[in-house]
Amino acid sequence: MHEMALTESIVEIACDEARKQGASRIRVVRLRIGAMAHVAPEALRFCFDAVARGTPAEGATLDILRRKGEGLCADCGKSVPLEERFAACPECGGQHVQMTSGDELRIEELEVD
């Protein structure tokens, strides 16, 4: 389960940033996860409590915001929604769609005390 390793990194980054800001406790970690990031949000939530134990993130809420996939079709020039990485353009059927969003995993915001 790669979500455990991802969660360890998320908690480490959040705790480092909280310390830089002089905070002693993290209340909320808000993540943005793209629909095509191949990350299971429920697995992250499951791992979060265990990984955060004993850190400033212990007891924090993990708030996950999902982002749909989008791409730019080189054939018709339109920005289009994507359901999978190498899908054809839903507008023209072209095969030259460059993904522009939907594969991200980032900490958007921390709420700290």
Model description:
- This protein is an alpha+beta fold.
- The chain has a single domain, classed as hypothetical protein PF0899 fold (2-Layer Sandwich), CATH 3.30.2320.
- It is 27% helix and 34% strand.
- Strands 2-1-6 form a three-stranded mixed sheet. Strands 4-3-5 form a three-stranded antiparallel sheet, with no helix packed on it.
- α1 packs across α2 (41-52).
- It starts with a helix and ends with a strand.
- 26% of the residues are buried.
Observed structural traits:
single chain, 113 residues, alpha+beta, hypothetical protein PF0899 fold, 3-stranded mixed β-sheet, 3-stranded antiparallel β-sheet, 2 helices, 6 strands, 27% helix, 34% strand
Please give the structural blueprint.
Elements: H1 2-20, E1 26-34, H2 41-52, E2 61-67, E3 69-73, E4 79-82, E5 97-101, E6 105-112
Parallel strand pairs: 1-2
Antiparallel strand pairs: 1-6, 3-4, 3-5
Helix pairs in contact: 1-2
Outline of the structure:
The protein is α+β, with helices and mostly antiparallel strands.
CATH topology: hypothetical protein PF0899 fold
Strand arrangement across the biggest beta sheet = 2-1-6
Q: Spans of 5+ residues with little confidence (pLDDT < 50)?
A: none
By CATH, the architecture is named: 2-Layer Sandwich
CATH class category label: Alpha Beta
Number of strands: 6
